[in-house]
Design a protein that fits this description.
With about 300 residues, this protein is mainly alpha-helical. It is built from 13 helices and four strands. A hairpin with a 2-residue loop joins strand 3 and strand 4. The N and C termini lie close together (about 5 Å).
């Protein structure tokens, strides 16, 4: 749902836009997580087709992976996640980076740092604020942008990313409590829906001066794996996010609206998982679902 357009048109007196917004409001459900101002986030379960969730489950169950697949995926996940952040390293250069530990370029160092962060998550049992701070230190080691905004624990100062102004520093402790209460709580049944909410909220907080995007993607794969979906250790979600970056940022923008409705981002993440799984199965010559362009279906 293009909230910004509908909200603009409704203010201009467009009755159709007003009707669409009221219909949306009527189907929203409250989520057990609040923004920095204490407003509950919401979502629209009716806007999530059951077939999409069923197809994701069916595809996941048919994926075959090996330890080699996992090792390669961690390297490629690190690569694509850093490409989103501007690293200009090419796939052909990955061998030199990981085998020779090449760190001549900033992008090389970013990729190695992200790889180290994945390994850290693999051996760390806790998921708390200290975990996030440790991830930030690893991810930004030697390549930190905006070091002047780095505080003792989180960033300091106001941060604006696109059209989003992140919560003030004084509100980050409150946001973190909301984040981990939801993260560890038994609230949303589908891990694919829940991870979309987790990803959105971390980006919404934007707690660090740099590395927030990479950390949010690390948390996404990590949460799915620790939800019992071990095959995601060999799946490169960042590749699909990198290929659909404009849609990713649009979904984030659409999820900041007057209803605090983050369904647009949940839909984006579900479509990302769907497309990624389909591509993996296509390479394995397994066609267990008929491909559907969910972008044309989701509203």
């Amino acid at each position: 749902m293009k909230y910004k357009e509908l909200e603009r048109d409704a203010k201009l007196g467009n009755q159709r836009a007003k009707r669409m917004l009221e219909e949306r409001r009527a189907c929203l459900e409250t989520l057990p997580i609040r923004d920095a101002m204490g407003c509950s986030l919401t979502w629209c379960p009716n806007a999530i087709p059951q077939q999409l969730l069923d197809d994701i489950d069916r595809m996941y169950d048919n994926i075959s992976i090996t330890n080699i697949d996992t090792d390669i995926s961690i390297e490629e996940e690190s690569f694509h996640s850093c490409r989103i952040e501007g690293a200009n390293t090419t796939l052909e250069e990955l061998f030199d980076i990981f085998r020779a530990k090449r760190t001549e370029k900033k992008g090389d160092k970013m990729i190695l740092n992200t790889y180290r962060a994945v390994k850290y998550l693999n051996i760390s049992n806790k998921r708390n604020v200290d975990t996030l701070v440790d991830l930030w230190k690893i991810v930004t080691d030697g390549v930190c942008d905006n070091p002047g905004l780095s505080g003792e624990k989180f960033r300091k100062g106001v941060v604006v990313v696109g059209t989003h102004q992140a919560p003030e520093v004084e509100l980050l402790d409150y946001c973190m409590k909301q984040f981990f209460s939801f993260y560890h709580g038994k609230n949303i049944e589908s891990p694919y829906i829940k991870v979309g909410i987790i990803h959105f909220y971390f980006v919404y907080m934007h707690p660090f001066c740099d590395g927030n995007g990479r950390i949010s993607r690390l948390l996404t794969s990590d949460f799915l794996i620790h939800s019992g979906l071990d095959n995601f250790s060999a799946i490169t979600l960042s590749k699909t996010i990198n290929e659909t970056a404009p849609a990713y940022y649009q979904a984030l923008e659409d999820s900041e609206n007057g209803f605090h409705d983050i369904t647009p981002f949940i839909q984006y993440m579900l479509k990302t998982v769907y497309d990624n799984l389909y591509e993996v199965l296509e390479e394995q010559e397994k066609y267990v679902v008929r491909h559907k362009d969910w972008e044309e279906v989701l509203m």
